[in-house]
Design a protein that fits this description.
The chain contains ten helices and six strands. By secondary structure, the protein is of the alpha/beta class. It folds into two domains: 201 residues, no CATH class; 58 residues, no CATH class. The protein is globular. The protein starts with 8 loop residues before the first helix and ends with a helix.
Length: 290
């Protein structure tokens, strides 16, 4: 068997964001958030169910997963393969935007429901050793969670090093699947007794995909490779032009003029967000330069 890489945006959305296979997402959410007993999620409604995007429209497509449970609580799941900087701020933005959008004008604040953000990262951003970290708003004096409506869980895939024989929990099995499915040639025995896992592997089996799905999957893989090469090329170009010291010294000294010069030289290579993360200018300032 040949399995798709679940870290690929299309594959991740196809596996975890299909209305016909909601048990996969439900199992994943319950394992990440450690929901049990009365808190267990039994059903979800997907805000943006899976459908194959058109390649020309991929630039404008955000392939994350958004779902709501029976209590109206919202869940945002995002797979991020490249470290473009400020991911924690983006997670705060997405979560607060989802929270605010619950409240039409004239609605009572008591109607607001909790929002959970889950970020799956193919890079590390925190100093903790565990591959999963949970972030809550805690009262510093009492260590109680008095403000309960925002919760963030981050899974840093490089920190997950368990082998197939070491998997203990449902969460371990989901993270192993996401990180390693593309390297497997058959469904491991430990996964076969749990229906959501069997479904996930079946969906990831590429010989069941149609031609359009395979084309978009390949396109996204090449697009990611091109973006990595573009960053490397930009860095080499900046070095050749003598700006490698200018980036570090210019930004440290607050020399905005130097940052603008560097940004201009990257306009034909990188998008606004990437340039912004490299030189410290805002995306709006970079758009003005264009």
């Amino acid at each position: 068997m040949t399995f798709a890489d679940p870290k690929n945006d299309l594959a991740f959305k196809k596996i975890f964001g299909d209305e016909r296979h909601k048990s996969i997402l439900i199992s994943f959410l319950n394992s990440v958030l450690d929901f049990r007993d009365h808190k267990t999620i039994v059903d979800v409604t997907l805000a943006n169910p899976y459908q194959v995007p058109k390649i020309p429209e991929l630039k404008e497509t955000i392939l994350d997963i958004k779902a709501t449970n029976r209590n109206g609580e919202e869940f945002i799941v995002e797979m991020q393969k490249k470290d473009l900087g400020d991911f924690t701020k983006r997670s705060l933005y997405y979560t607060s935007k989802a929270y605010v959008s619950q409240l039409p004008k004239g609605t009572n604040y008591t109607k607001l429901k909790r929002v959970y953000f889950i970020g799956l990262l193919n890079f590390n951003i925190f100093d903790n050793e565990s591959y999963i970290s949970r972030h809550l708003i805690i009262n510093q004096e009492t260590q109680t969670q008095d403000l309960e409506d925002f919760e963030f869980s981050f899974i840093e895939l490089p920190k997950f090093t368990k082998s197939l024989d070491e998997l203990e929990t449902i969460l371990d099995k989901w993270i192993f699947f996401i990180k390693n499915a593309k390297d497997l040639t058959m469904i491991p025995q430990t996964y076969k007794s749990n229906p959501p896992f069997k479904e996930a592997f079946d969906i990831a089996t590429q010989n069941t995909w149609d031609k359009k799905e395979l084309e978009v999957y390949e396109y996204m893989g090449l697009k990611e490779f091109d973006e990595i090469n573009a960053i490397r090329t930009a860095e080499k170009k900046a070095m050749k032009r003598g700006f490698e010291n200018g980036i570090e010294k210019g930004l440290q000294a607050g020399e905005k003029k130097k940052a603008v010069e560097i940004a201009k030289n990257l306009l034909d290579i990188l998008d606004n967000e990437t340039i912004s993360s490299k030189v410290g200018l805002s995306a709006r300032e970079i758009e003005k330069l264009r």
